[in-house]
Amino acid sequence: MLPTDTPATRLAAVREKLARAAALAGRGSGAIELIAISKTHGVEEITPLIEAGQRSFGENRVQEAQGKWPALKAAHPDVRLHLVGQLQSNKADDAVALFDAIHALDRPSLANALARAMEKANRTPTLFVQVNIGGEEQKGGCAIGDLPALLAHCRALGLNIAGLMCVPPAGTEAAPYFALLAKLARDHGLSQLSMGMSGDYETAAMLGATCVRVGTALFGART
Ligand SMILES: *Cc1c(COP(=O)(O)O)cnc(C)c1O
């Protein structure tokens, strides 16, 4: 690895681009949480980023996260861990025990399971409702038309929903989808927006993201 391409220099570059995009939109960069998506990457790749000051990380599989994060969190108690992948209801207990934020609440049955798990564990991870913003058949996320009912269901359960999350269709211009997610959040009085990945986090930052989820630009390509 060249000294010019280290986890620390990649982190600095992403932070700088994020700050510039936020400033262009008249926002402070402190308003945007950079989540380093460490799926498929090992402890030896994650540790240098923690040492460079990164504190928010994300994983997309509960089981994979259980293999690497309990020890890392014990060593670095101020790390915040986000679940950004689809969650099966039978993994709700495990997810609530390990994660500080869950970005994939997308159906009433999962809301029920999370409410039960949170009460049992007496933990309240930050919750995002994932919206299937492009109306894609294969993708997780609540249909736009089902969003009001899902939010009402969560409210009735006493679940506090912080905001909305989306993954726009691959290979398309993301900006219209980000703008739509921002509008949906505004319409429902939700303040947080989890949107933007390596290819489009600057766009997301300009359109109101409060957290961006960046993997490849920090860790390099996944194999
Ligand atoms: C993998 C993943 C990311 C990060 O993607 P990159 O393109 O590597 O930055 C962001 N969000 C979700 C939901 C992911 O699964």
**Which strand-content bin applies to the residues?**
15-25%
User: Can you tell me the residue ranges where pLDDT is under 50 for at least 5 consecutive residues?
Assistant: none
The distinct bound ligands, ions and cofactors come out as:
pyridoxal-5'-phosphate
Briefly note the CATH topology name.
TIM Barrel
Give the helix level as a range of percent.
40-55%
**Bulk shape:** globular
Number of helices: 9
**Biggest β-sheet: count, sense, barrel?**
8 strands, parallel
Salient structural properties:
eight-stranded parallel sheet; binds pyridoxal-5'-phosphate; TIM Barrel; alpha/beta; 8 strands; 223 residues
Structure characterization notes:
The protein has one domain: Alanine racemase (TIM Barrel), CATH 3.20.20.10. The protein is 43% helix and 16% strand. The protein has an 8-stranded parallel sheet with strand order 7-6-5-4-3-2-1-8. Helix 2 links the parallel strand 1 and strand 2. Helix 4 crosses helix 5 and helix 5 packs parallel to helix 6. The longest helix has 18 residues. The mean pLDDT is 96. The structure holds pyridoxal-5'-phosphate (PLP). Pyridoxal-5'-phosphate (PLP) binds next to strand 8 and helix 9.
Write the layout of secondary structure elements.
Layout: H1 7-24, E1 33-37, H2 43-51, E2 56-59, H3 62-75, E3 80-83, H4 92-98, E4 101-105, H5 108-121, E5 126-130, H6 147-157, E6 161-165, H7 175-187, E7 192-194, H8 201-206, E8 211-214, H9 216-219
Parallel strand pairs: 1-2, 1-8, 2-3, 3-4, 4-5, 5-6, 6-7
Helix pairs in contact: 4-5, 5-6
The chain binds pyridoxal-5'-phosphate.
